[in-house]
Amino acid sequence: MNGMKKPFVFVTRKIPDAAIKLLRDNNFLVKVYSKDLPIPKDLLLKNIVNADAVISLLTEKFDPPVIDSLNRCKIIANYAVGYNNIDVKYAAQKNIIVTNTPDVLTDSTADLAIALLLACARRINEAENFTRAGLYKAWKPDLLLGIELKNKYFGILGAGRIGTAAAVRAKAFGMKILYFSDMKNEYLEKNLGAQKLSLSSVLKKSDFISVHLPLTGKTFHLLNKERLALLKSSAVLINTSRGEVIDETELIKVLKQKRIYAAGLDVYENEPGINKELFKIRNAVLLPHIGSATVEARTEMALLAAKNVAAVLSGKKALTPVIL
Ligand code: GLV
Ligand code: GLV
Predict the structure, then answer these.
(1) What confidence tens digit (pLDDT) does each residue in 182-223 have?
(2) Is there a common fold for 8-102+295-313 and 106-286?
(3) 75 three-state secondary structure
(4) 306 C-alpha vs ligand 1 centroid, how far in Å?
């Protein structure tokens, strides 16, 4: 009888239906944790014990003890491009494939980085609050002046898919592109005339800095006190990657002392906790981790996670495995 048993796929949160349908069409037994909060750890452990595959979110931490509780799991398909919530090395030792969702969320996330950049440069939140408060009495030459993008330096930290897509957008605004990366990005250099510089040079020279690095041991607090001190007083700092890449306590000091112009943040160091000090800072635009939050991206992310599961459970290669 065992050989006839349907493979069991556990999904740690409600994701777009198309993905669940794809899994059921593959004749898998699918269970979705459908409460509107991250799954509590005890329930996660209980449900994954006999799972053949798990679709997880960035809110679920797969550390060695959790991975050890997987008795028959072949794949953890992360519903995110970032996979710092999973100990990928440990999973590999246990012969568990980890997949992520690259490409499908690149444009949405790059769009959001630019939205934050424009919001900071043109003081959109301040201006909107002003309007809603009924304070707009007459057109005024110096009302809510911001900064123009054209001819400014746009520096990206990390020149992967999302950083590159953000740079393409910035170029369309007439910005000059600088990048910090381990590797030369031919596309950026040839098509956008981008210049590869050291981290400190990008930080010193850029008018707008956008973080597009994955969170790793190497990038944790990459923007620490010393590096934040290199930013121009007119600089705008954008982060749509992972909060831990920036030392948030130091960033708060920098913002409070107006040592930079503004920061646009979609991610935080202790997510979903947000340092209350940030709420008091006027020159910060704060979003609740919505980089990939478009109908298109979220649907494609779900489908890609499901296709990875279907591939691996039918003995085929994963479509987008995380490569160590
Ligand atoms: C979201 O932050 C993701 O990594 O996809
Ligand atoms: C992430 O997908 C990146 O390459 O920026």
Answers:
(1) 999 999 999 999 999 999 999 999 999 999 999 999 999 999
(2) yes
(3) strand
(4) 17
